[in-house]
Amino acid sequence: MKPFLLLASRAEDTAAEDEYAAYLRYGGLASSELRRIRLEAGPLPDLDLSGYSGVIVGGSPFTSSDPSDHKSPTQHLVERELSGLLDRIVAEDFPFLGACYGVGTLGTHQGAVIDRTFGEPLGGVEIELTDAGLADPVLRGMPRRFIAFTGHKEAVSSLPSHAVLLASSEACPVQMFRIKENLYATQFHPELDVEGLVTRIDIYRHAGYFPPESAEELMAGARRFTVTEPTNILKNFVARYAG
Prior knowledge:
alpha/beta; nine-stranded mixed sheet; 7 helices
């Protein structure tokens, strides 16, 4: 099959490698079947989308809705490159799955309002699928309600009329949406299981996302959840578009 493409932007090597391993594991992919490009490390090369089965955008330290003068040169470059690539992806309705940062990128590109109204602290939340979500092939076989891990400063506060809402939560009305037939974005992290979140907390304990002294409490909180369903999104996405 043609490989999938993972576009990553985590500067910390340990976090980047753990994220890549999670997409391999839960997508059921060999390393030869998932090419990774680290956007924070250099310019995006010319891409021939016909050589890929689909594009995945992983999580990111970047916050799309921050004022322009608060963004680093690297963030500005990544946003410009992703926006240009999304011009092509959306025009072709090319298979796309954006996890967490995918909301800020695909959402912004499609005219969603992205702001800090519905940010969520790090931890597990109950996600509820809409009727459209239950009928969507990328969510095939999933229960209407399940637990997933979130942690984000920004979220969609208003979707454009052409977007299809697939999932919500009590504190964040837009947890997953679809554009056209093949373009998906989730606010929660479909690649994260319990140990994945614990690892990420440990890596980022001094990165300013939370008080360093709260790391052990956050890890203990993560371990109180059973999170098994979200990773099926990766399996379903790969199964649908591998070709």
